[in-house]
TrEMBL record:
This is Cobalt ABC transporter ATP-binding protein. GO terms for cellular component: ATP-binding cassette (ABC) transporter complex. PROSITE patterns: ABC_TRANSPORTER_1 (PS00211), ABC_TRANSPORTER_2 (PS50893). It is found in: Cell membrane. GO terms for molecular function: ATP binding; ATP hydrolysis activity; ATPase-coupled transmembrane transporter activity. InterPro entries: AAA+_ATPase, ABC_transporter-like_ATP-bd, ABC_transporter-like_CS, ABC_transpr_CbiO/EcfA_su, ECF_ABC_transporter_ATP-bd, P-loop_NTPase. Keywords: ATP-binding, Membrane, Nucleotide-binding, Transport. It is a peripheral membrane protein. Residues 4-235 form the ABC transporter domain. It comes from Haloarcula japonica (strain ATCC 49778 / DSM 6131 / JCM 7785 / NBRC 101032 / NCIMB 13157 / TR-1).
Length: 270
């Protein structure tokens, strides 16, 4: 089943600069897809178009093969933009996490269950009674993610989900995204970070600075094409640069490299 189908999307900023120009996107249910590109490539705008937060100047987006109206499927679709303050506007973190399911007419017991479950998974238990503005940047990002998850979405669109998050909480978020994907949640992640992509996506849409998609392919194919990445003003992952030209099957992450170099993996190095 197709979760999101976008055709000929076009969007221009008020100064008439094209951010997205004739883009087609098809995302299947349960996929993990990265929108990868340099700053200014229109990734965030494309994510907002796919999430129905802004209307395109041309083209359309269809959801779950049934509607082009994102508002009618809000219970199945969550979008997390770069600014956590967009999601944290209540007096306490608990009220922010409860807001989404309450709007879906969940009863009080179900709202509380969802809040406690997500807060526990993102280590927010001790922060639920705090005002959001008293949280650190990383805490705000985790709280915003939690608020997007309490509606139990089928599709989750995330813009730089681990930006300004320390290493421990980054690992917590990435583990949670793995669990969501294993449960069948469709994930779309916008990022300029090639190091993050192997941890969140199996397929990549590579954007360039013209508002178009320069390439599509598996995460491995895109991230090991170092010339293509550099042409799009992106730095290939450090491990890829280290093993480039020295291994038959280039690893994408430190963990994968360690496995290759452990025991039998040593014979992959020329």
């Amino acid at each position: 089943m197709t979760a999101i189908e976008a055709t000929a999307l076009r969007y221009a900023y008020p100064d008439e600069t094209l951010a997205v120009d004739g883009v087609d996107v098809s995302i299947e249910h349960g996929e993990r897809v990265a929108l990868l590109g340099p700053n200014g490539a229109g990734k965030s705008t494309l994510l907002e178009l796919l999430g129905g937060l802004v209307d395109p100047d041309g083209g359309q987006v269809r959801y779950f093969e049934e509607t082009t109206d994102a508002d009618t499927v809000r219970s199945r679709l969550s979008v997390l933009t770069q600014n956590p303050a967009d999601y944290l506007f209540n007096p306490t973190v608990r009220e922010d996490l409860a807001y989404g399911p309450a709007q879906l007419d969940c009863d009080r017991a179900e709202v509380d269950r969802r809040v406690e479950r997500v807060a526990d998974r993102l280590a927010l238990d001790g922060l639920l009674s705090k005002p959001p503005f008293r949280l650190s940047g990383g805490e705000q990002r985790r709280a915003a993610l939690a608020s997007a998850l309490t509606v139990d979405p089928d599709v989750l669109l995330l813009d730089e989900p681990v930006s300004n998050v320390d290493a421990a909480n980054r690992a917590t978020i990435l583990d949670l995204l793995d669990e969501l994907a294993a449960d069948g949640v469709t994930l779309v992640v916008s990022t300029p970070d090639t190091e993050l992509v192997p941890h969140v996506a199996d397929r990549v849409l590579l954007l360039d600075d013209t508002g178009t998609i320069a390439a599509r392919g598996t995460t491995r194919r895109i991230l090991t094409d170092t010339e293509l990445l550099r042409d799009c003003d992106l730095r290939p992952p450090q491990v890829v640069r280290l093993f480039e030209g020295r291994a038959k099957d280039v690893p994408l992450t430190v963990e994968e490299a360690a496995e290759r170099l452990d025991g039998a993996g040593l014979d992959t190095i020329e």
